[in-house]
TrEMBL record:
The UniProt record lists the keyword Ligase: yes
A GO CC term assigned to this protein in UniProt: membrane
Keywords from the UniProt entry: Ligase, Membrane, Transmembrane, Transmembrane helix
This protein's name: Lipid A core - O-antigen ligase and related enzymes
Organism: Acholeplasma hippikon
Length: 466
């Protein structure tokens, strides 16, 4: 049992989970489309079975988090609200995981408290059920109404079953998962790479097309890369070598190549913020590594100056204040359309909003709900004034949690990337979106249980890189 527990806490375990996640997701490239859905859901047992084993055998549940998150990132097909009809094995996976949770409760009898964020999530869960009273009820609205309660249960489960400081494990999970997601991003460019010889070949480079990862869009993927890049600051503090800087360069390069404008801005702000911190607050070896990184970046930009110029012009060409709706790729229509826009929906249902079953008018060729690509407008339309007030209270709870745990460098690092991605969320999908919510809520649960021991306290700021 001790050897098994040690394995689940090891680098090897996290690397295996990440590699397996990428492999299953990559079915999309070599499995016929008619078999893709069933094979993907059948492969989910590779994650759900060890997840249940951990739930049944161990009191601490932190090692199940990578498996749970990976079940989201393996989806390599275009899922919509009708996919569940052909996903019996997916339902069986969910049932298996629920049974594991029940056995864990019976065996270890964890005492549940609301913890730092429970009240806000509970209020949000209730408020999003209320629109069922005055809006049409169907299988989609019933399914979606469980979304926020699912977030509540996930947070409460991990916040009450993680029994010690697991910040180091969280950062390690972020490291390997973000690297795996970067390889997903590279794989999505494969059609463009097949005729691509070298970075000087700009004609071929301009052929690069970034497809959707299917479990979300490209923006969802790059937002995860920025969010999980908090591990770079953690390892920058923990180790003296240049590897954290190379990690940042790797992530930054692929985010910029993805042409995801919001994430280009946030990863640039991230790099500038880290550089300024190291310059004024860092130690000698950190400043030396920063200088080496700047020199290497300068050399790269000079050698591939044509490429840099092309990417810069491509980005600047999207900035057109004469056509703000075009510049925001239709977001003003999403927000202010006189019939179905977020503000119009809010006016119809000003108190509790319309609920999550939003009309699929903007993408009416797809069997999916409409997402308003903004945290504020999404909550305004779906949650109304009450939803906005609950969201403000949730952010207040999050702020208090960060203040209480501010001694940890991992907490400071995650706060930085959390704020950057929430800033991005003003014009994109973050808050209440399933991938972003599960990753952040599990991180909050870990932070909630992070406590300093006498040994760890040491010198403030360096005491524990946990």
């Amino acid at each position: 049992m001790q050897k098994l527990e040690k394995f689940f806490k090891s680098h090897i375990y996290l690397i295996l989970v990440s590699a397996l996640t990428f492999f299953v997701w990559s079915y999309r490239f070599f499995i016929p489309s008619e078999n893709l859905v069933s094979l993907t859901f059948n492969s989910m047992f590779l994650f759900s079975i060890p997840l249940v084993v951990i739930l049944v055998l161990f009191k601490s549940t932190i090692a199940t988090a990578p498996l749970l998150i990976s079940c989201l990132f393996i989806i390599g097909f275009d899922a919509d609200i009708s996919t569940i009809d052909s996903a019996l094995s997916g339902i069986l996976n969910v049932i298996l995981i629920v049974i594991g949770f029940i056995v864990h409760f019976i065996r270890f009898k964890p005492k549940f408290k609301l913890k730092s964020l429970g009240l806000g999530l509970l209020l949000a869960s209730v408020s999003y059920i209320i629109p069922l009273i005055y809006t049409p009820v169907n299988e989609v609205s019933i399914l979606l109404v469980f979304l926020v309660p699912f977030y509540l249960v996930t947070y409460l489960f991990y916040a009450n079953t993680i029994d010690k400081n697991e910040l180091n494990y969280l950062m390690r999970f972020f490291l390997y998962t973000s690297i795996m997601l970067s390889f997903q991003l590279i794989a999505l460019m494969s059609d463009g790479f097949k005729d691509f010889k070298f970075l000087h070949d700009l004609a071929a480079f301009q052929q690069l097309h970034v497809d959707s990862p299917a479990w979300g869009n490209v923006n969802d993927l790059t937002i995860q890369l920025v969010l999980m890049s908090s591990c770079m600051i953690f390892y920058l503090k923990k180790y003296k070598n240049i590897l954290p800087w190379l990690y940042l360069g790797w992530m930054g390069f692929w985010i910029i190549i993805s042409d995801s404008r919001g994430s280009i801005v946030t990863i640039t702000l991230y790099a500038i913020g880290v550089a300024i911190y190291v310059l004024f607050k860092g130690r000698r070896h950190q400043r030396i590594n920063l200088l080496i990184t700047i020199i290497l970046t300068g050399i790269f930009m000079y050698v591939f100056r044509d490429l840099v110029t092309m990417v810069y012009r491509s980005f600047m060409d999207t900035i057109n204040f004469d056509d703000p709706n075009g510049m925001l790729t239709g977001r003003l229509t999403l927000w202010f359309d006189p019939e179905y826009g977020a503000v119009t929906v809010f006016k119809r249902y000003p108190i509790f909003g319309s609920g999550w079953n939003t009309p699929h008018w903007f993408l009416n060729e797809q069997n999916r709900i409409t997402i308003y690509h903004s945290t504020f407008f999404q909550v305004l339309a779906t949650g109304g004034l009450v939803g906005i007030l609950i969201l403000i209270y949730h952010f207040y709870e999050v702020g208090k949690l960060f203040v209480r745990k501010r001694r940890f460098i991992a907490v400071k690092a995650f706060l930085f990337t959390y704020l950057l991605t929430q800033f991005h969320g003003l014009i994109d999908n973050t808050q209440y979106m399933i991938h972003y919510s599960l990753v952040t809520l599990i991180a909050f649960a870990v932070i909630d249980n992070a406590n300093l021991t006498d040994i760890e306290i040491g010198v403030l700021g360096d005491a524990s890189v946990n």
